[in-house]
Amino acid sequence: MSFFDKIFGGSDAEKDSVNFWHSIESESDLKQAVKKSFEKKVAIFKHSTRCHISKTVLRNFEKEVQNSAQDAEFYFLDLLAHRNLSNKIADDFGVQHQSPQLIVLENGKAVKNASHHSISLDLV
C-alpha cells in the first residue's frame, strides 16, 4: 500500500474490511437496493475515496454498524468510480449530492439523509 493510499484509502480497502456492505456499481444494483427497501430499511453510503473526512466518517459508521443489532441493508457507493450513479441517486430521490452522505430508503423513497459528521446509525 502506498503512502497516499494509507492517508486517503483505496477504493476497495474500506468496504472490504467489513462484510455487511452490498456494492452499488450499476443501475441494476441500485434497483435491487430500492426493491429491498420495500422489505426493510436500506442505507446507501456515498463515499469519496479521495477525501479524508469521508474515510473517517466511513470508519466511524462501520464501527457503529458492527456493534449494533440493526436490521437494515447497507449499500456502498464509491462515488468517484460511479459518479453517474451518484447523480442518479440525487435525481431519483430528490436529495442534494453530498460526500460523504448517508441516504435511508423505505418503500422506495428517501426518508432521511445526512452528510459529513452528521452521519450516524441513529438515522437508520
TrEMBL record:
Gene3D superfamilies per the UniProt record, alphabetical: Glutaredoxin (3.40.30.10)
Alphabetical list of InterPro entries matching this protein: BrxC, Thioredoxin-like_sf
Tree of life domain: Bacteria
Pfam annotation, one family: BrxC
Protein name: Bacillithiol system redox-active protein YtxJ
Organism for this UniProt entry: Chryseobacterium suipulveris
